[in-house]
Design a protein that fits this description.
- The chain contains 17 helices and 15 strands.
- It is globular.
- The longest helix has 28 residues, at 143-170.
- It folds into 4 domains: 5-168, Beta-Lactamase, CATH 3.30.450.40; 192-354, Rossmann fold (3-Layer(aba) Sandwich), CATH 3.40.50.300; 359-433, Orthogonal Bundle (Helicase, Ruva Protein, domain 3), CATH 1.10.8; 456-499.
- It is of the alpha/beta class and 504 residues long.
- It has helices spanning 5-16, 21-36, 74-81, 143-170, 192-205, 221-230, 249-257, 274-277, 293-305, 331-336, 342-348, 364-380, 389-397, 403-421, 456-474, 479-486, 490-499, and strands at 40-47, 50-57, 68-69, 86-88, 112-120, 123-132, 211-214, 239-243, 282-286, 307-308, 317-318, 322-327, 351-354, 384-387, 426-429.
């Protein structure tokens, strides 16, 4: 059976109309599902030995967040290796990547499955997958008809990739327009906040501006920094990471700028700092708000003049480093409180980026859950890991105070629990596998003191000792994290603890 001219014209029009590639691709597979009468269809992009879903119809929403590696999916590997239409036998032994991901279908052991590889010239750029519960669903359609569909889809996908590449290059000034980025970091999310963030990353990555990335803990600020670096002309050079919160004040300057032999006790040789390691590349200063005011002044000098001095050395070293700074603090408030230099804040925040918390990202929760389900499946060697409808609803109803990091840990824990209770390697995640209920704080009636009163200063200091000890216990004796929990500057916390006799 061949498609009529009207059907082919309709598909072609769907690919030409609309304001965005996502709209066109969605209409394409929706139309294909109607024309072919299949139960599920998907358009996938091929990149770095994996297929990335661009648009789906008839599949669970979390499929959009999954990344299907060739090594983990024999059917998709067969499609990638084929140069033509692939028709899988209805009873094929090869596991289907969508097993358990078509709503209402428990398994796909016997079904019709067709794969159409998409090429730009001789280069594989994607695939169309078609699934039907009737084993003979696609028997009536000739290979020639399916090749026409594949050609139309390949042309649309190739145009979208070309436009994306040209847009990226046009943002780069001067001779850098020939720049080819390295493998790009995947930022999963289709919510308005994430779409806007991705646009801003594309814009600022092409420049050489310093960027301040702010957002709650666990939102993915480091991922944003990686995306900026990978989208920049510096992509082939190092991205160097430094967590300012984990730096004891005594070694922070040496970590940043290096030192010479004999500069201090223990300096037995010359050592380069992070700025030298990041020369011609990018330096990410995570938790920038934890730097002392003295180090902030030295960092400002580097940003202004582009030279550094190793500890114990009078000579200056020129460096060409782009600085990205990340923080979960409100640095404007820190400036007002006198804990952060206003001039450094303005130097860093020429182009600020805000990473939205997960609770504001809507259905991105499901896409990310799909991504982590697939990662768990590969890591644990499972045949499938899927979320049932009730589990998806549970994930959507939770506020995620720990953001994406909490979601990742919740998925991994749920998979381990479900696998332990399952008979085989098929894992279906249900609401009971997620321990997301925050225990309510018990109501405690105030108790009037019955013990003799003590001097106010002694009582205050005893209270301070208890609070500091509790914070250190909760944060594994990390002073910087404990200071944040107590609403203090870490240097002030060290001084207070010493005065209270809690430090030598």
């Amino acid at each position: 059976m061949s498609f009529s001219v009207n059907v082919l014209a309709k598909i072609a029009l769907e690919l030409q109309s609309g304001i965005g590639h996502q709209d066109r691709f969605q209409r394409l597979i929706t139309t294909l599902r109607q024309v072919l009468g299949c139960d599920a269809s998907a358009l996938l992009r091929y990149e770095a030995r994996q297929f990335i879903p661009l648009a789906i119809d008839g599949l669970a929403q979390d499929v959009l967040g999954r990344r299907f590696t060739l090594e983990g999916h024999p059917r998709l590997e067969a499609i990638a290796r084929a140069g033509d239409v692939v028709r899988f036998p209805a009873d094929s032994d090869l596991p289907d990547p969508y097993d358990g991901l078509i709503p209402g279908q428990e398994d796909l052991h016997v079904h019709a499955c067709v794969g159409l590889p998409l090429f730009a010239g001789q280069t594989l750029i994607g695939a169309l997958t078609l699934d039907g519960m009737d084993p003979h669903q696609f028997d009536a359609f000739s290979d020639e008809s399916l090749r026409l569909i594949a050609a139309l889809a390949a042309g649309a996908l190739d145009n979208a990739l070309l436009i994306e590449k040209l847009e990226r290059q046009n943002l780069l000034p001067g001779p850098s327009t020939t720049f080819e980025p390295v493998t790009r970091t995947q930022m999963i999310g289709l919510s308005p906040g994430m779409v806007q963030l991705k646009k801003e990353i594309e814009i600022v990555a092409a420049s050489d501006l310093n960027v301040l990335i702010d957002g709650e803990t666990g939102t993915g600020k480091e991922l944003v920094a990686k995306a900026i670096h990978e989208g920049s002309p510096r992509a082939a050079n190092p991205l160097v990471y430094l967590n300012c919160a984990a730096l004891p004040e005594s070694v922070a300057e040496s970590e940043l700028f290096g030192h010479v032999k004999g500069a201090f006790t223990g300096a037995i040789s010359h050592r380069s700092g992070k700025f030298e390691a990041a020369d011609n590349g990018t330096l990410l200063l995570d938790e920038i708000g934890e730097l002392s005011l003295a180090l902030q002044a030295k960092l400002l000098r580097v940003l202004q003049y582009g030279d550094i001095q190793r500890v114990g050395d009078d000579r200056s070293i020129r460096v060409d480093v782009r600085v990205l700074a990340a923080t979960n603090r409100d640095l404007r408030e820190e400036v007002i409180a006198g804990r952060f230099r206003a001039d450094l804040f303005h130097r860093l925040s020429v182009f600020p980026l805000h990473v939205p918390p997960l609770r504001e990202r809507g259905d991105d929760v499901i896409l990310l859950a799909g991504y982590y389900c697939e990662q768990c499946r590969l890591r644990l060697g499972l045949s499938r890991v899927v979320l049932n409808a009730a589990a998806r609803a549970r994930l959507l109803s939770y506020a995620w105070p720990g953001n994406v990091r909490e979601l990742e840990h919740a998925i991994y824990r749920a998979v381990v629990l479900a696998h332990a209770a399952a008979a085989g390697d098929d894992v279906v995640l249900e609401p009971q596998h997620f321990n997301l209920e925050a225990a309510p704080a018990p109501h405690v009636e105030p108790v009037l003191p019955t013990a003799p009163l003590q001097p106010l200063r002694d009582a205050t200091e005893a209270f301070q000792r208890r609070q500091i000890a509790a914070a250190l216990d909760q944060h594994q004796h990390n002073w910087a994290a404990s200071a944040r929990a107590l609403g203090m500057d870490v240097a002030n916390l060290h001084r207070l603890a010493k005065r209270l006799g809690m430090k030598a």
